[in-house]
Amino acid sequence: xxxxxxxxxxxxxxxxxxxxxxxxxxxxxxxxxxxxxxxxxxxxxxxxxxxxxxxxxxxxxxxxxxxxxxxxxxxxxxxxxxxxxxxxxxxxxxxxxxxxxxxxxxxxxxxxxxxxxxxxxxxxxxxxxxxxxxxxxxxxxxxxxxxxxxxxxxxxxxxxxxxxxxxxxxxxxxxxxxxxxxxxxxxxxxxxxxxxxxxxxxxxxxxxxxxxxxxxxxxxxxxxxxxxxxxxxxxxxxxxxxxxxxxxxxxxxxxxxxxxxxxxxxxxxxxxxxxxxxxxxxxxxxxxxxxxxxxxxxxxxxxxx
Length: 305
Hints:
Elements: E1 7-11, E2 14-18, H1 24-44, E3 55-56, E4 74-75, E5 78-79, E6 81-82, E7 85-88, E8 91-94, H2 100-120, H3 126-142, H4 153-171, H5 179-186, H6 191-207, H7 244-247, H8 250-260, H9 263-266, H10 271-280, E9 290-291, E10 301-302
Parallel strand pairs: 3-6
Antiparallel strand pairs: 1-2, 4-5, 7-8, 9-10
């Protein structure tokens, strides 16, 4: 299905339509024209659009002149509501890509489950408490973590405090207990490390075309002008953006993460082996990952601080 100048993203029954331009008038005109075409297509195929459930959102920088404006689009004479944040595929996305709403949602869910653990912790062994973390808490932080990896330091600290509190409950330790030691003893990554691993796995999928179609061809290996003695397997870094808003993009962060890991891991073609090494031998307490050797049987991991 083509949508004129709009870019459609379809997943099951969820559909997102994107238009990009510097002019708000052009965006509104493009959306309205293509929505009219979309309505004709639905009518021709005996389908209907549920206009009340449709939402529109204008993505822009916090300092952009567009921050005080909203979209003006109607479908079948029904105006589409303009919102500041929207939930798409389980992830809350706000118009400034700050992910404040998503972080608040995660913390709200965590509070409910954290209180439950503290109530029953004295009745269950540590192994079961750790299992509860992996099944109830970690999915909250891990789902879509590579998407909100570029959120503010304040949001990152809020989430990390939540994880630390739950890990203290697992080991029944005091609040002055070393956080780094706690993560090492439980062999659980910090959230920053987990987000970096998720981004690296997405980059690997994009490089070897084993992931969603949208990841293909956005990551490219660096091609030196002259032949080198060995392959470096570095990625070409995009042009540096002028604002932090652009640095949040996975294309920017993913390339930097990839170039920071050891050559042996960058040369791993099999995605299953790549995931195995990162998951099995990546339990460290700092977000800097450096792999010294490759191989499921003897992978050594060191950290740079």
